[in-house]
């Protein structure tokens, strides 16, 4: 099997195969331009006044997300490894199956959500109800489930080709929607005067902002490993996950604030952008769906020890399509809150292992002597999840910090325990 044609699923990306900064930015922006993010923004926009609450939540949530992804992105660029291979170091050869399973499931879940949403919303935009026309809705889900994986099947090059075309178009469509919303809201003063119609906690809102892309962000190394330098990976991650994701949240939030309608599709209809809405929805979902299933293929190749990434891509798309048919799209907000709680500690463990324990250097993955289980990594993840779930405040941030601290403490305890036995031999 030609690893190059399969995007190096089981090895480091060589320097000769690295991509340009512009290429990396458009691929990551295509990933973060996601309809679900606008839906989440809509829920937040309907619950908070514009200033200072809404602005502070959007900036804080996306800054945390951008910083988190930037650190992981830098690690991916330095090592040339994807998230699944990095997990082998931080969790152990067998222990890595845990984050593989979690990350793989979340990506398949997102693929199912996007596939179902495309079918349901398309029918709504043309005046049809998915429940009434269920046979047509299911047929569209199967069609989109198969179609969306095409560019991911090609690999990084396919993702890049689609994003180069779609990202500028989506930016233009978002700008038009924002311009209309500001005008309909009465300008700056009018927006300030609008009072929210729903209730939502600030911690929950920030978790939703973080949670929309924390699973994808944790796997951003799948693309930043192609960066020509660590600094390019950091800046590309910040542009995509702080600015790009922030733009999506802001668009959904502003539409909800002005029209008191958290559903971005209904907002587009109110604005008279039905046809543009169909175009934006299709491009928006496609550029995320292919990245999502590409993530799954990277995890799947490592989990099943196969270099046939394209076959894993097709299998993942099939599973995601089944989830779409089961209507996973009806459970978005609980899904986001779970992601914001249980995924960030994985990134915290990877950071602690690479930056603290390994001091910023990994041996070649093919020759590395790795234990079956990295006890410090597993302990950091479990305690990080518990802290995020039960502690007040911002669960994603708490989970990351606790996972890092627990990893460091447990690793030092284990090292100190094993040192005397080693030195006495």
TrEMBL record:
Gene3D superfamilies referenced in this protein's UniProt entry, alphabetically: Hydantoin permease (1.10.4160.10)
The keyword Metal-binding is assigned to this record: no
GO cellular component labels: plasma membrane
Membrane-related topology note: Multi-pass membrane protein
InterPro entries linked to this entry: CodB, Pur-cyt_permease
Primary location class: membrane
Membrane-spanning intervals of the chain: 21-42, 54-77, 98-123, 135-154, 161-182, 202-221, 233-258, 264-287, 332-352, 397-414
Keyword entries, A-Z: Membrane, Transmembrane, Transmembrane helix
Cellular compartments annotated: Membrane
Domain of life (superkingdom): Bacteria
Any one GO molecular-function label of the UniProt entry: cytosine transmembrane transporter activity
Pfam family, one: Transp_cyt_pur
Family the UniProt entry places it in: Belongs to the purine-cytosine permease (2.A.39) family.
Protein name (record): Cytosine permease
Naturally occurring in which organism (per UniProt): Paracoccus methylarcula
């Amino acid at each position: 099997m030609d690893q190059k044609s399969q995007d190096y699923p089981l090895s480091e990306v060589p320097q000769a195969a690295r991509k340009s900064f512009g290429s990396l930015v458009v691929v990551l922006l295509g990933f973060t331009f996601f309809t679900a993010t606008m839906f989440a923004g809509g829920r937040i926009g309907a619950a908070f006044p514009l200033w200072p609450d809404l602005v502070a939540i959007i900036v804080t949530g996306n800054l945390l997300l951008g910083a988190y992804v930037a650190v992981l992105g830098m690690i991916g660029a330095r090592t040339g490894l994807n998230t699944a291979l990095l997990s082998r170091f931080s969790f152990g050869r067998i222990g890595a199956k845990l984050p593989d399973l979690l990350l793989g499931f979340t990506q398949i879940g997102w693929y199912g959500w996007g596939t179902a949403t495309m079918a349901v919303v398309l029918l709504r935009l043309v005046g049809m109800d998915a429940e009434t026309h269920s046979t047509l809705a299911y047929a569209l889900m199967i069609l989109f489930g198969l179609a969306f994986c095409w560019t991911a099947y090609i690999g990084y090059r396919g993702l890049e080709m689609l994003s180069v075309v779609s990202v500028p178009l989506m930016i233009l469509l978002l700008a038009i929607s924002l311009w209309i919303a500001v005008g309909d809201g009465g300008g700056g003063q009018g927006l300030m005067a609008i009072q929210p119609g729903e209730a939502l906690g600030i911690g929950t809102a920030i978790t939703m902002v973080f949670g929309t892309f924390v699973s994808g962000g944790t796997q951003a190394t799948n693309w930043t490993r192609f960066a020509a330098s660590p600094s390019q990976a950091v800046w590309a991650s910040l542009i995509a996950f702080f600015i790009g994701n922030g733009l999506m949240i802001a668009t959904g939030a502003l539409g909800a604030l002005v029209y008191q309608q958290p559903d971005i599709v209904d907002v587009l209809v109110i604005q008279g952008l039905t046809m543009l809405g169909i175009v934006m929805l299709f491009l928006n979902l496609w550029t995320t769906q292919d990245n999502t299933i590409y993530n799954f293929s990277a995890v799947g190749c490592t989990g099943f020890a196969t270099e046939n990434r394209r076959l894993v891509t097709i299998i993942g798309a099939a599973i995601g399509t089944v989830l779409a048919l089961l209507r996973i799209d009806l459970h978005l907000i609980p899904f986001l809150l779970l992601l914001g709680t249980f995924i960030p500690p994985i990134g915290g463990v990877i950071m602690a292992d690479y930056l603290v324990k390994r001091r910023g250097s990994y041996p070649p993955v093919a020759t590395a002597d790795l234990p079956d289980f990295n006890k410090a990594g597993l302990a950091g993840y479990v305690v990080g999840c518990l802290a995020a779930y039960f502690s007040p405040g911002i669960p994603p941030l708490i989970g990351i910090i606790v996972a890092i601290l627990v990893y460091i403490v447990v690793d030092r305890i284990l090292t100190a325990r094993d040192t005397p036995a080693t030195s006495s031999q």
